[in-house]
Amino acid sequence: MPDPLFPTLVAGAAKEALRFGDHALTYDDLAAVAGGLARELPPGRVAVWATPTLHTSVAVVAALVAGVPAVPLNPKIGERELAHILADSEPALVLAEPGAELPAGLAALPRRDIPLTGGKAPLADEPDPESPALIVYTSGTTGPPKGVVLPRRALATTLDALEDAWGWTADDVLVHALPLFHVHGLILGILGPLRRGGSVRHLGRFSTEGVARELANGATMLFGVPTMYHRIAGEVGTDKALADALRHARLLVSGSAALPVHDHQRITAATGQQVVERYGMTETLMNTSVRADGERKPGTVGVPLRGVELRLVGDAGEVVDDVESVGEIQVRGLNLFTEYLNRPDATAAAFDGGWFRTGDMATRDADGYVKIVGRKATDLIKSGGYKIGAGEIENALLEHPGVAEAAVTGEPDDDLGERIVAWIVPSGEPPAADELADHVAKLLAPHKRPRVVRYLDALPRNDMGKVMKRALGA
Predict the structure, then answer these.
(1) pTM of the entire predicted model
(2) Average pLDDT, integer, range 329-350
(3) Which of left, alpha, beta for 432 (phi over 0: left; psi -120 to 50: alpha)?
(4) Pairing with 444, which of 108, 181, 401, 460 sits 20 to 30 Å away (CA)?
């Protein structure tokens, strides 16, 4: 029989597993309630109304115990996207927090409220490692969202590789405030601690006060996205309680988008801590990370994780071996998804002879550290014969004291092919465009300076804090 996905859940323990505010469950409690709910789940698939609550965690664990694929739903989902996901995944019912108001689009689906209590009973045998565990829908920037089928094998592989990279143990207590309908918050942030036999404390809503409180009271690790760390970077220099709490954390991890080097530097200056970045996707789970026991290089996402093969591929399909040369990241390993649900065409197109095409462009340094320069479609700018990554220009712009936020895109130019456009949220009086262009040229190179500067009150972001660059172009 396969090894259990959550050994401590099967063995039992009085230790706290999950805490959301004042509500907590031990491993024994979680086994009882999730095991009871698992026995009630029908075959097929179940949708989970994924609010940031203890209930969502219980529902997903119950589905995993039952061997029933779970489809997490963003509680802020729009009606058209919801209709597409329901038609595509055909769940048998929806699991929801008691009292949660569901949209009209779910009215035809049977509802089961998620309990937080239950009687103890033996858990079901561990399903086959290749069986689907979760179906997570991508953001759908170029069309309707695709359902990424993640097998149990991928979850176990990626979480065990992070155990190796981060020294993650049962003694670790993770704090985070991430949404629970995607890989970062749900798989890494909830299922990760449960696989290790550790604990997780979810803040419900992010606040620097909550982070400081939990890290000062036994939490050892913090997971966040760059918007969260940007807030921390802005406050940690003057907030002694926050600085002290972060200083005593074992590990600070940022993901889902690039953390600007300027924010790395401000956090390190105030706390001595160096934030670890990692790189993954819905389809691949985690691919690389800066190791807890390795050199920290701000601006990089580290080296390939154990069991992950990674290569960079050029425009003509050639493997790029030169240090600092740009290529598309392709990966293969047991961390990969099985397929896009009902989309054999998209599944086939996503692979290059067994290698998954990520669409992310990167370089590697002499030590093998990967530096992502942007998405192939939106962040790689071809200007004046040069391939230029938007990310390094954004980092340079953020070093200017008059810039609070920055995004860089390309737009057609008759002379250059594409010209570099900087979208700036100023920190006060907007700096002049020429001043910003000279600033970038001095730090990087003249051909990387923005030719156009546009000022905004805020950058458009999705629920993960990623800038939606297609919205900028529109």
Answers:
(1) 0.85
(2) 97
(3) beta
(4) 460
